[in-house]
Amino acid sequence: MKMRTRLTKSALVGVLAAVAMLTVAWPATAQRQESKPAAIEGVGVTEYPEAQIPLDLEFLDSRGNKVTLGKYFDGKKPIILTLNYSDCPKLCIVQLNKLVEAMGNMKWDLGDQYEVITVSIDPMETCDRALLTKQSYIQKYGRPGAGEGWHFLVGDEKNIKKLADKVGFGYRLVGKQYVHVAALFICMPDGRVSRYLYGVDYDPQTLRLSLYEAGQGKVGSSMDQILLYCFHYDPASGSYGLAAFNLMRVGGFATIVVLGAVLSMYWVRERRRVKKPVES
Description:
This protein is α+β, with helices and mostly antiparallel strands.
């Protein structure tokens, strides 16, 4: 009996020791898992819904003209804002190519219903380099008048950083390349951020509904309004999905309209039949 007691105590001491070791080791393991490499520290996006872009920030356009952001946020059209740079080895190229592809699959025309502003995060980028980049993507888009709707801007590091901080875009220079993520900032005509779209694969319907929503009814058709009513934005998937309740309401309203039309036709026909004189 005494031997069994000693064994039980020894086992208990062993278990407690193991738990203590795990307790000490766990924070260190968790810390190792959560810590980021120094190269990507601070890189990412922090969402600031309805953040007001500083409209007085000065940049140079691809022709070398000094402009402020307020020139483009004139209260008329929603704007897609991107933060990229022309000498990016891969990510920016993929992102802008996919954006062109999505815009090409929309019925809306760039420069008509919406505009795009691409600000270089590289303060060393020249206007000539930005112009070459602009010409390349305008040619890929292939619709007339697009050159007046897509603006490529360069500027000094101070103003680039102010804009990036305002929309929550974190990036950093590592060697000769900038480490950053791919994101679109859908902006209202007055310069407030309406929606964040991530990745490099943009669904044309999501892009159009985001622009319509940001446009506050100033662009788009009544059909876009109906679609936005029936769809809701899902932040998890980064797209618009069917809103079941709204869809039921629309369906119910449509049923009432159709039923009313059928009953009206029936009543009109019955009245005519009753009023018809009886032949002698």
